[in-house]
Here is the input.
Amino acid sequence: MKIKKLLKIEASDQSVTIKGWVRTKRGSKNISFIALNDGSTINNIQVVLEGNNFSEDLVKQITTGSSLIIEGILVPSKGNKQPIEVLAKKINVLGGADAEQYPLQPKKHSLEFLREKAHLRFRTNTFSAVFRLRHALTFAVHKFFNEKGFFSLHTPIITGTDAEGAGEMFQVTTLNLEDLPKNKTGNIDFTNDFFGSKTNLTVSGQLEAELGALGLGQVYTFGPTFRAENSNTSRHLSEFWMIEPELAFADLHECIDLAEEFVKYCIKYCIDHYADDLQFLNKRMSDEEAKLKKEDRSEMGLLERLQFVLENDFLRITYSEAIDILKNSKPNKKKKFKYLIDGFGADLQSEHERYLVEKKFKRPIVITDYPKEIKAFYMRINEDNKTVRAMDILFPEIGEIIGGSQREERLDKLKERMTEMDICEKELWWYLETRKFGTCQHSGFGLGFERLIMFVTGMKNIRDVIPFPRTPQNANF
Ligand code: ATP
Ligand code: MN
Here is the structure.
């Protein structure tokens, strides 16, 4: 029986079999207490070994990290720390863990240290809670869109397009890098490459999702995306997961409504179904923050923050309004920002986003209608011919969590923007076709899945919410 299920049972001498890993063992010659965990829950079950029932040899083999099968009976606990415990009758040590060599000690390990111990990371309270919540969020994403009548669409991971403009791409090739075939003009001859043309790993499934939406009505992608940018921050990965819904017949505001409802739904799902893990992480975050200087601590605890997001509307402002606020803000006037804001046109850096979210409005905000120069070619141009129907959703601590837009559905305007931005029409012919036949108003957004997990778990580094992080100079395991 899984420990999660076991812990909900009332003890009355039932026979049970449990399997798991030893978290701690203490006791004396006559009696030992084992805290056993099987990953199904943050909580351990206490197993009691009465000394004279087991050989000394066997008891010695049981150390932190070893894996056991225990047959015993479920009884009310004699201690007051737990309501029930398992009185062991038969123990099978499947795998010992040499106590001298076992890398995890009962003391707290740093997250950096644990990143190097990929095989044991999953056995810690913090990471098991994070990865159960990652699962919860994955499930909530599919559940939400299914209930809303969206269809999940698998867009390609290998793409022949490199014009999406979302970021630097990783090239995919089977050509011999030591002996590259050249054509008559001296360039690499990609007709000899595996796909007969140059290919990359995708930076977004959006363009393909638009094709799906303009037939299926409402679709969403949920897949890995890759960015070959050398951004070594706590919010960027080279390989991350993105959720990209695309809605036909929807304008920007319907798209923002959907995004807000979606994020709240996912958070609520975790609160309703994974309260134990969230409580653990709530305490963890407040313990961690107690070590910080007062001004660096968050104003709200983790659970409080999640509840706050559920209960409050996201504040919607335009880019121009945001710029005015930033321009007249204290840190701008006192030249505290690294990038000073002097007016319309400036790209918002994370310091500006954080000021707006954490200092000025103290809640999630949606910024719309950015200057066309700093946004992608496919965003719908406004009447002013200066701004586009873009939206970014910014969260406390995380910054940008969602980026989206109403798409330019008018073929002539779209082509104009592509020329302006030097994007090759020939390469995107298949995308332009959607604007020739039955084009319609449509919108969509991209949510960085790991950023959502960071928000829900309170983890401060994006490397700690993905099982096997890929970052510049690191693709271990
Ligand atoms: P940022 O400005 O934070 O680098 P972006 O504007 O380049 O992000 P988009 O192209 O709009 O990102 O991607 C949509 C979403 O994907 C973002 O809102 C963010 O949540 C997430 N995202 C983007 N880049 C990364 C990355 N390198 N690692 C993890 N998540 C990312
Ligand atoms: Mn963005």
